[in-house]
Design goal:
Blueprint lengths: L1 E5 L3 H12 L3 E6 L2 H7 L5 E4 L5 H4 L9 E4 L5 H13 L5 E4 L3 H10 L4 E2 L1 H14 L3 E6 L4 E7 L9 H4 L1 H5 L2 E12 L5 E7 L14 E7 H8 L5
Parallel strand pairs: 1-2, 1-4, 2-3, 4-5, 5-6
Antiparallel strand pairs: 7-8, 8-11, 9-10, 9-11
GO biological process, one term: monoatomic ion transmembrane transport
Pfam families: TrkA_C, TrkA_N
Protein name: Potassium channel family protein
């Protein structure tokens, strides 16, 4: 896919570099040359320009871009102006970052409904990880549903997913399992390695140290987390 990311601060720069690492074509834009220079070897393309200027933005390959993401955080005025510019240019998909309620309200008024809150989302995931024993990571979905990675309770170890009857007992689906194994690194020291096994079925056996990727309402997932206290 082809991405244009505006704002090469901590969030935007890291996102652009990660997408580049995953094989996507990324254009990273910032009005500060030092940021552009710092990231030029980590991102497919970097451009120093003012994305709040319509005539400058018009010169970007917008028709080829699958996503334009305005990642500007600190300068709310620049974020709103850049979002308005790309909205006017009718890009295929426009995502904008908001750092406050007022910021989000203005972006919505422009007509952008896909809004991200990276700081809030990271804090929410970390809060769940810290307050709930056994949670490794989590992702909230609308309607009160969550995708949560949890350490497999001892009660499930050695049983297949069908035998554990997780869906019927807890109203939770197992999406996949992450296998955690100790493997020697290049120096010969043991190091934890994770491997996702893909789509699971009723015959898939849960083993010791497995991480279960669960989907359901948090109140139901918490019942499984309580098994780790036993």
């Amino acid at each position: 896919m082809k991405f244009i990311i505006v704002g090469m601060g901590n969030f935007g720069g890291y996102l652009a570099a990660r997408l580049t690492d995953k094989g996507h074509e990324v254009i990273g834009i910032d009005s500060t040359m030092s940021r552009v220079e710092a990231l030029k070897d980590k991102i497919t393309h970097t451009i120093c320009m003012d994305a709040t200027e319509l005539h400058s933005a018009k010169n970007l390959p917008l028709k080829e871009a699958d996503v334009v993401l305005v990642a500007i955080g600190e300068d709310i005025g620049a974020s709103i102006m850049a979002t308005a510019v790309f909205k006017e240019l009718n890009v295929k998909r426009l995502i904008s970052r908001a750092i406050s309620h007022t910021h989000e309200t203005v972006i919505k008024a422009i007509g952008v409904n896909e809004i991200i809150h990276p700081e809030e989302e990271t804090a929410e995931r970390l809060a769940k990880k810290l307050e709930m024993k056994g949670v490794i990571d989590s992702f909230s979905i609308s309607g009160g549903y969550n995708i949560v990675e949890v350490k497999s309770p001892k009660e499930f170890v050695g049983k297949s997913i069908g035998e554990s009857d997780i869906r019927n007992k807890y109203n939770v689906n197992v999406l996949t399992i992450v296998k955690v194994r100790n493997r020697p690194n290049i120096f010969g020291a043991l190091q934890e390695r994770e491997k996702v096994i893909g789509v699971v079925n009723a015959r898939t056996v849960i083993e010791n140290n497995d991480i279960l990727v669960l989907f359901g309402e948090m109140k139901d997932i918490e019942k499984i987390l309580d098994l780790n206290d036993d």
